[in-house]
Specification:
107 residues; mainly alpha; 66% helix; 0% strand
Length: 107
């Protein structure tokens, strides 16, 4: 992985660490969860908080404006947590309903 790819991964790790619910991105990747469609929609973080994390990490690594723009594009078009609280709540309810139906079928 190159420098910018590592920085993008660092940003994602922090975003998921502080998302609702919090998650360990490395564990999600190891379990294969991140290969599922729309896996990131199960997590929420405001756009402002995502931007703050991105700014802090870019500043820490002293990125040029071009590098920062590249990282920003990659993160914003990639797999950041959901920024719509309403959409996140809908997804959360769907997951809870699926879990309840699985539990009922096991009994």
């Amino acid at each position: 992985m190159n420098k910018l790819e590592n920085i993008v991964l660092e940003i994602y790790r922090l975003q998921y660490k502080y998302a609702e619910p919090p998650a360990d991105l490395d564990a999600l990747m190891a379990s294969g969860e991140t290969k599922k469609a729309d896996w990131f929609s199960k997590y929420y973080m405001s756009q402002e908080d995502q931007q703050t994390i991105m700014d802090l990490v870019c500043k820490k690594h002293k990125l040029t404006s071009l590098e920062k723009r590249s990282v920003s594009i990659e993160v914003n078009l990639g797999s950041s947590p959901n920024t719509s609280r309403e959409q996140w709540l809908k997804e959360r309810k769907k997951c809870q309903a699926r879990n309840l139906s699985v539990k009922k079928n096991k009994k």
